């Protein structure tokens, strides 16, 4: 058994559409425990740092603008095999390719505005959790 924690964001489109509750329900019903959670808004500098790996990509400026346009729900989630199982639950980056019943299949608008973030490795889960939460905010 591998990782126990991953990091997620319900992105601005999910908050705007009123989908916080229904997405959190799907996450907890899938066996994830909420270890940390808050409504927050990323600054331009925050988003540029969080997504630094994508800074040379053509979609980078649009991604930063999208992720900073309104509040997000940031959360740390706990479950056996958390990183991999959460990536399975959210589905492919492009909702057109996301499996039936996945969060992106159900709630994403496009490959850009795709409803949720999920860490892609244990290492990034730890980095991303620490980016948004102090030790005393994680339970
Ligand atoms: N993204 C985009 N256009 C693309 C690919 C990605 O706007 O062609 C955005 C999208 O919001 C995605 C984020 O950039 O979730 C990070 O991309 P990544 O390839 O890491 O996808 P993810 O890990 O979120 O599935
Ligand atoms: Mg990614």
Which helices and strands occur, and which strands form pairs?
Blueprint: E1 5-10, H1 12-16, H2 20-29, E2 33-40, H3 44-50, H4 60-67, E3 72-78, H5 82-90, H6 103-107, E4 116-118, H7 122-132
Antiparallel strand pairs: 1-3, 1-4, 2-3
Bound molecules: uridine-5'-diphosphate and magnesium ion (MG).
Short description:
The protein is an alpha+beta fold and 139 residues long. It has a single domain (5-134), classed as Nucleoside diphosphate kinase-like domain (Alpha-Beta Plaits, 2-Layer Sandwich).
Protein described:
This protein has 139 residues and is of the alpha+beta class. The protein has a single domain (5-134), classed as Alpha-Beta Plaits, CATH 3.30.70. The protein is built from 7 helices and 4 strands. The chain has helices at residues 12-16, 20-29, 44-50, 60-67, 82-90, 103-107, 122-132; strands at 5-10, 33-40, 72-78, 116-118. It has a 4-stranded antiparallel beta sheet. The longest helix is centred in the last third of the chain and has 11 residues, at 122-132. It is globular, with a radius of gyration of 14 Å. The chain starts with a strand and ends in a 7-residue tail after the last helix. Uridine-5'-diphosphate is lined by residues 54, 59, 63, 93, 111-112, 114, 117, 120. Uridine-5'-diphosphate (UDP) is lined by residues 54, 59, 63, 93, 111-112, 114, 117, 120.
């Amino acid at each position: 058994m591998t990782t126990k924690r991953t990091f997620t964001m319900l992105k601005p489109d999910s908050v705007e559409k009123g989908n916080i509750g229904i997405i959190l329900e799907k996450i907890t019903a899938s066996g994830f425990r909420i270890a940390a959670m808050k409504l927050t808004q990323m600054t331009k500098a925050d988003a540029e740092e969080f997504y630094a790996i994508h800074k040379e990509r053509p979609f980078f400026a649009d991604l930063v603008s999208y992720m900073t346009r309104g509040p997000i729900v940031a959360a740390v989630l706990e479950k056996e095999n958390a990183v991999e199982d959460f990536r399975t639950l959210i589905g492919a980056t492009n909702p057109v390719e996301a499996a039936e019943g996945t969060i992106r299949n159900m709630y994403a608008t496009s490959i850009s505005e795709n409803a949720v973030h999920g860490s892609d490795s244990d290492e990034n889960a730890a980095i991303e959790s620490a980016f948004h939460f102090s030790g005393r905010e994680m339970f």
